[in-house]
Specification:
The chain is of the alpha/beta class. It contains six helices and nine strands; from the N terminus they run H-H-E-E-H-E-H-E-H-E-E-H-E-E-E. The chain has a domain of 148 residues: 3-Layer(aba) Sandwich (Rossmann fold). Bound molecules: S-adenosyl-L-homocysteine.
């Protein structure tokens, strides 16, 4: 698929901007420099792919702002081989970044349209998550637990308990929590029933929807 010198140049500039805005992990920045964000965008917005903005994708959802993706991924501290669960596949951009970092990726999306579209994109691009499911992220993926890392890419009104329970001891959950705006929280599991909690400032996400709040497709 098409990734030109022009795209690469724009990407380099975006990565420098993220560095200037405070992203420190060179591992994350280098991986983002390799991912052609324009391929994950709605075709009508492709010219904006290397702006540091969120943009609409299908089904009233958004591809997250690159700064937010970099920030969350830095907090997640992914190591090669980690088993990572992602809630909110959306465009698949974050999924691709996790794969680039060497993770084994499991991802859940509740919008059938996006789920199918992103699956098609991944097979075209040769990207291979371990498992993608069309389902409810509030439940996590009990058949595949435990996970080293869990990342939620939609605003959660509450922290879903199953996600905490599906972490290994020492594992981390990065989740934006709140209704109108969200606070970025990182939980680290320290024991069977104990978790550390760190807070990292305010962000704005589309909501993590509960199944009961509407039809799923
Ligand atoms: N990280 C993706 C998507 C961000 S938007 C990207 O950058 O493209 C958040 C995504 O979470 C949307 O695709 C939305 O449909 C999905 N979502 C919302 N509630 C969900 C739930 N309960 N379970 C799984 N996915 C959910």
């Amino acid at each position: 698929m098409n990734d030109t010198i022009k795209h690469k140049g724009l990407r380099r500039q975006l990565i420098q901007l993220l560095r200037d805005k405070g992203i420190q992990s060179e591992t994350v920045l280098e991986a983002m420099e390799l991912i052609p964000r324009h391929l994950f965008m709605d075709p009508s917005l492709v010219n904006f792919a290397y702006e540091d903005q969120a943009y609409p994708i299908a089904a009233d959802q958004t591809i997250s702002q690159p700064f937010t993706v970099a920030f969350q991924t830095e907090l997640l501290d992914v190591q090669p081989g980690h088993k990572v669960l992602e809630i909110g596949t959306g465009s698949g951009y974050q999924t691709a970044l996790l794969l680039e970092l060497g993770a084994q990726v499991y991802s859940i999306e509740r919008q059938q349209l996006l789920f199918k579209k992103t699956q098609r994109l991944f097979s075209k691009m040769g990207l291979r998550p371990k498992k993608m499911i069309f389902g409810d992220g509030y439940l996590g993926m009990p058949t595949e637990e435990p996970f080293d890392r869990i990342i939620v890419t939609a605003g959660a009104p509450v922290v879903p308990k199953p996600l905490l329970n599906q972490l290994i001891v020492g594992g981390k959950l990065v989740i934006p929590v709140g209704v109108k705006k969200q606070e970025m929280i990182r939980f680290t599991r320290t024991g069977a029933t104990t978790f550390d909690q760190e807070k990292f400032g305010e962000f704005r996400f589309v909501p993590l929807l509960e199944n009961k709040t509407g039809p799923i497709n």
